[in-house]
UniProtKB/TrEMBL annotation:
Keyword Transcription: no
Protein's name according to its UniProt entry: DegV family protein
Top-level taxon of the source organism: Bacteria
Transcription as UniProt keyword: no
Pfam families, per database record: DegV (PF02645)
Amino acid sequence: MKTAILTDSTAYIPKALREQLDIHMIPLSVIFGQETYQEEVEITANQFYEEVRSKGELPTTSQPSVGMFLETFEKLAKDYDAVVTIHLSSGISGTYNGAVAAGNMVENIKVYAFDSEISCMVQGFYALEAAEMARAQKSPEEIIARLKEVKKSNSAYFMVDDLSHLQRGGRLSGAQALIGSLLQVKPILHFVDKMIVPFEKIRTRKKAVNRLYELFNEVASEGAPMRAVVIHANRPEEAEEMKRDLEKKYPHVEFMTSYFGPVIGTHLGEGAMGLGWYKR
């Protein structure tokens, strides 16, 4: 059985890596006024942050339609018998449910939908694992079983630099945002039960980043082989510096850098930083 691996654009897997591992991608979109852009296809992360700064307003976001999923599955059916399709948390988007609905409609290919219950490159880790297994000719059932195993240690924490994005996106009340900005609060967020929820409130950016290091150390100090990623919202130099620091301390961990692209960046805002990982 030949199995395709599909994920959505919010995994933010670099195009070259997607092509190398034969990972297919379906895009979510951002909408500025009357203009709709498919992220990772029609707008890059850099272009997005420039657009937000120049316009001074946040876009809205939209998920792939069931029809787009159906069309994608039908194309894959020409070359594959099955598809493992991996998506951002169903608690923050209907993308996974769209994949399930289309999977129930399509013929000639069996669809195995997986809810990552997270997003960004930490979601991408599932796609990397799945792609490596598909290349080794593992069955879809074996791949799904491994993804469920990964989920036991898959985790991410992220620090928000500008509370106004969370407030404008309906994730934070105006009063909370005002108090937070006055006190220089940099909230650390994480996923719980598929939803983004506050983990801790930290007073400064430096302390918030140090707290991300501490949270990572709690797991990495055990010495087990791991994959980890530093994620940034238009702060590539800071992300590379964090990656170098961590690589020195944890030689048993395979580190990457990635980014908060347009859809997730709409809600977190420029300057956000994150750290995610799982045990290999």
